[in-house]
Amino acid sequence: MIKIAPSILASDFSRLGEEVKNVEEGGADYIHVDVMDGHFVPNITIGPPIVKAIRPVTDLPLDVHLMIENPDAYIEDFAKAGADILTVHAETCKHLHRTISLIRDHGVKPGVVLNPATPVEMIKHVIEDVDMVLLMTVNPGFGGQSFIDSVIPKIKQTAELVKATGKEIDIEVDGGVNDQTARICIDAGANVLVAGSAIYNQQDRKKAIESLRNSSQR
Ligand code: DX5
Ligand code: ZN
Asked: Of the candidates 5, 49, 157, 158, which lies 20 to 30 Å from 150 by C-alpha distance?
């Protein structure tokens, strides 16, 4: 079963509540929230107050993607704000296992993210401890970038790693996901697709979500 996680980064922030509701009604599975700090990535977006504001608007899990230095310092704030899944970049964690444990201690599902240039070996020893692996298919920082094809072998490698655990661990892809690239990702083993522009730039979000979900059947 393929899950769709619309990224609100591409939504109209002046109508954020409606934009969240709209994709929920369109059949989204998660709401993807991109948190950027202007240090780890060259852009600043949103923080815990926005997560708190959208929490009562939707019943969907909030999939909060932390593109920030020193994520440990903010885990409690995001947990209290209502995050259901917190993903941290392996590149930002000096003690990755500790950070993952901290997220779980706060009652939130932990996930780990890898940039396109970071090898899958980085997460080999923590795979059993996470609920999600997020593979960046663009360099993080901005919506609307082009998909990086060289990540495909990493999706396959991650799928093998996950299979060997015998656990249900989501494999999510993020960046440049559209009907064409979604299909390649699903075929390689991804089961959660993040999409910003491919959903929010369309008038009919329901149709866009269905189209992404069914992309591998065409
Ligand atoms: C990029 C973000 C993505 C982004 C995706 O740093 O993590 O979630 O919003 O946007 P699209 O789907 O437009 O590439
Ligand atoms: Zn993201």
From this structure: 5
Residue partners of 3: CB distance under 8 A and separation at least 6: 29, 30, 170, 191, 192, 193
The active-site residue, picked from 29, 63, 131, 174, is 174
- The reply, when asked if residue 107 is annotated as ligand binding, is no
Q: What is the pLDDT of residues 171-216, one digit of tens each?
A: 999 999 999 999 999 999 999 999 999 999 999 999 999 999 999 8
Question: What's the pLDDT at 218?
Answer: 75
pLDDT for res 164: 98
- Catalytic (active site) residue 174: yes
Annotated binding-site residue? 144: yes
How close is the Cα of 145 to the center of ligand 1, in Å? 7
Instruction: List all residues whose CB is within 6 A of at least one atom of ligand 1.
Output: 7, 9-10, 32, 34, 65, 138, 140-141, 143-145, 174-177, 194-198
Tell me if 41 sits within 8 A of 140, measured CB to CB.
yes
**How far is it, in rounded angstroms, from Cα 216 to Cα 218?**
6
CATH code: domain 3-217 is 3.20.20.70
217 pLDDT above the threshold of 90: no
ipTM (interface predicted TM): 0.99
- Taking residues 87-103, what's their average pLDDT? 98
Domains in the chain: boundaries: 3-217
Q: What is the pTM for the complete model shown? A: 0.98
Active site residue 34: yes
Q: Which two tokens stand for residue 71?
A: 């994520």
Q: Say whether 189 counts as a known binding-site residue.
A: no
